Structure formats: C-alpha cells, structure tokens
Predict the structure.
Amino acid sequence: MPELPEVEVVRRGLEKWVVGASFGEVEVLHPRAVRRHASGAADFAARVSGCGVTEARRRGKYLWLTLDSGEALLAHLGMSGQLLVQPRHAAAERHLRVRLPLTARQGHDPEAPQELRFVDQRTFGHLLVDRLVDDGTGTGLPSVISHIARDPLDPAFDEDAFAAALCRKRTELKRALLDQSLISGIGNIYADEALWMSQLHWATPTEALSRSQVATLLAAVREVMGAALAQGGTSFDSLYVNVNGESGYFARSLNAYGRNDQPCARCGTPIQRETFMNRSSYSCPRCQPRPRHARA
DNA sequence: ATGAGGACCTGCTCGC
DNA sequence: TGCGAGCAGGTCCTCA
C-alpha cells in the first residue's frame, strides 16, 4: 500500500512523463473512482479534457497535477491505486478506472500515442478536480486537502509545532502517527518500522512523550522513509507499481512489520502481532515494552 | 472539540 | 471441491 515514498516515486514519474503534455478526451470507466469529485463524473471529465499539465506536486500521500486551467487534478492512490503511462492501444487492465489520453509532447513519438491510466483494484483511491488555495507560503494547495499536515520530508515541516501538537493529544502514539492532520505520509508499515527503530510502543500515551523521544521518533520516520525513497520507493507490496508499470516491490528487510514470531533484529525476542484500530501492529515485546500507563 | 470505532472495497488464503 | 470467514488498510463519517 503506497505511503509517502511510493507516492513520491509516482510523482517523479508523472513529472517526467506527463508534465508538458495535454489531456485528450478523458473517460471515467468506474464512477467510484471520482466519487469525491462533487459535481459528478461527466463534470470531472470535462474539467480535465483538453487541459495542459504544468506541474506534478505532492503532500503526504496526496499528489496532484496542476493544470493550465488554474485547477488541479488531485489523486489519492488509496491502498491499491496505480497511475500508469501506457500506449493508448494497450489492452485495458482488469481494474482500469479512468483513461486520460495524452497528446504528444516534445520527445514523444506521435505515432505511439500514450495514455495516463488510473488502475485501482480495491477502489479506495480516487481522482478529483479542485481549485488551488494558498498553503500559507504562497504555494497552491488543492482546497480539499487543506487539512492535511505537511509531511516530514517537506522543507517547511515545523518540528516544534509538530512536537507541541503531538503532546497536546490525548491518544496512543501510533494513532497520532497515522493522523494525517498532525503529520502526513505515514501509514501502517512505516509507523511500525519507525516505532521499532525508536524503541517506543505503539500504545504510548502521547502526553507522556518527552521532547527528546519525539525528536528520536521523527528522526526514525525520516530514516525509514528516506531509505525507502533511496531504493526507488519500496512499497513492500506487490500491488504497488510505479508510473511506468515497473514493479516497485523489492525484497527489503523489514524490522517489525509483518514479522510475527520472527526474531527481533536487535535482541532476538520474537516480534509480536497485536490488533489495533482493526489492523495489525508489530513490535518487539522486549525493545518496545508496553508502557505501564498505556491507554485502554 | 475531540477521540474512538465502523464502513467502504476486492482478492487472496485458510480451514472445515 | 466448495464456500464462508478472515485479512489487508487509508480515509471519511458517525457517534459518544
């Protein structure tokens, strides 16, 4: 499931293959793919068709293409979404949801027309067209994601403000890490990996965290994400495919996630799986002891 | 206002 | 062999 590094790799792919091109006649094959576009599938297609693409941007797990109409084509990949650039006449993928034909641009062979495709098996992802608002630094941000916090790789990410907001929360640490309005880009896998690295239990009450623990945790988040990004957006999931259809999955040694009953790389104690928020959390019971004052 | 938990969705795997 | 249950989980929505 794509988290920040995977989405960034897709953004880079879009920057390379789509920026500078224009869209032809857009076709929505599954209405659920544009369910967040308030005025419907036909309006969505009309707003994108014919527009030129000027930039590919990202915040957390959201990415968007700025259009020469002044609006933005916003995408969230959900759990299984892919943005592929394919030859226009290539066979349709099984879960093809939206076709966005591309006009030839400099460097493209006009005899081999291409198409941006939104493919999504589980349909948790979506596309929509939105207006841009000022993000506070003069940069445009789609209005519907104005509640999404900056991500830890954003140069304007405010570490002090994050630490203060985190400690004001009255909840469990992992829930806060997954709260995209507090810090964006972190999903279940990177949350478990960052917690393992910083030797914190997922149920640690946020109000009990010291500033140095928050600093350690943030460094771990950046380390884990940076390492994945350096590998080209390791997703740990075979469903993840980058913009050219090349699998982004590489065997990567995870230290916690998915390693139930396997020895902790630090101390050898078997990693334990616990259910939390209706999903799995993996941690080392020795390196990451459950805090005595854990919630619930 | 804030936190907690369920719904959404499809495909795969496992056990009976 | 067939089939239902369980699992995967990001985000939005509702309820307390």
